[in-house]
Amino acid sequence: MRVLRLLKEPYPLNSIPKMTSFAAFVAGFVFLFLTFFQPFGLGGGDLVGLIKVTATYGLITFFTIMLATLLIRTLFPAYFKEKHWTFGRELVFTLLNILLIGLFNTLYSNFKFSIGLNFNEFLLFLFYTIGVGFFPVVFFMFLKYTHLIRSNVHTAEDLSGSISKAKPSTSLDQDIKLSIHSELKKDDLEIFERELVYAETADNYIAVYHLIEGKLEKSMVRSTLGRLETDLADRPNLVRCHRAFLVNLEFLESFKGNAQGLQLRLRNTPNEIPVSRNRVSKIKSMLE
Question: Does the domain at residues 166-287 carry the CATH identifier 3.40.50.720?
Fold first, then answer.
């Protein structure tokens, strides 16, 4: 049961740049490992020949990871949504990468050394190749997960404590009207600051969540979150907490941490809103 719960736990989804760095690291590791340890009789030839072969294994590893990452994410974009990404999905995707790396490296080995593997031998060789990478990868995934959990939960508890210590603001008691400008002038939105709960990017629009007679409503405005942040720069309680979210700290209720990072909860809404790591210190300073 614990294993099943772990598979459903949130896990950070690597961006394409991070996957490129990861692919380069793994390729470098494969190259160095094969060059120094020379398994499967790789050291039978001269040094230059050895390096050519091990470098080819490294390049195959790099391009396999990148091909799988770009192709699969293009074909199944809905599957690779960060808010839905879990330890289990990361594990499946990682195992798929290991399988493909093992497959292409086995094919190269059979071609380069004229091994002449039959189908059963091919599967056995592939199994050994996958076995070398499986356990270290799962081990490091678990280490990364536990480290992120501890770090983010501690930060969330620290920030939640700051909420209770924060000095109460009087801004919600004032009739401060906000103008949220739209690219279509007739669709400009004017609301009181005490009514604005949060805003979220929605393609070419921003979804503004605000209270009307105590009930949370959504208004769509054709604009960008960057423009909204600029328009509201003089309102200290309205803070960009993520590339896709701007929140009103007056509605801040609590923080939560998991392996993906930090999330905050606002009064009047059940949604958990992500907090970018580079914005944590700013929010913390505003709560002190």
Answer: no
Residue 116, pLDDT above cutoff 80: no
pLDDT of amino acid 286: 83
DSSP-assigned states of every residue in the chain: -HHHHHHTSB-PPPPHHHHHHHHHHHHHHHHHHHHHH-GGGGGGS-HHHHHHHHHHHHHHHHHHHHHHHHHHHHH-TTT--GGG-BHHHHHHHHHHHHHHHHHHHHHHHHHHTT----HHHHHHHHHHHHHHHHHHHHHHHHHHHHHHHHHHHHHHHHHHHHHHHSPPPSGGGS--EEEE--SSGGG-EEEEGGGEEEEEEETTEEEEEEEETTEEEEEEESS-HHHHHHHTTT-TTEEEEETTEEEEGGGEEEEEEETTEEEEEETT---EEEE-GGGHHHHHHHH-
| Beta pairing partners, 218 | 209
Q: What backbone phi and psi angles, to 5 degrees, belong to 54?
A: -70, -35
CA dihedral 13, 15, 21, 25 (to 10 degrees): 20
Contact 10, 259 (CB under 8 A): yes
- Phi/psi of residue 179, each to 5°? -110, 115
Residue 52 pLDDT exceeds 70: yes
- Average model confidence (pLDDT) across the chain: 87
Q: Where are the domains of the chain?
A: 2-158, 166-287
**CA dist., res. 145 & res. 86, Å (int):** 11
Distance CA 179, CA 202 (A): 19
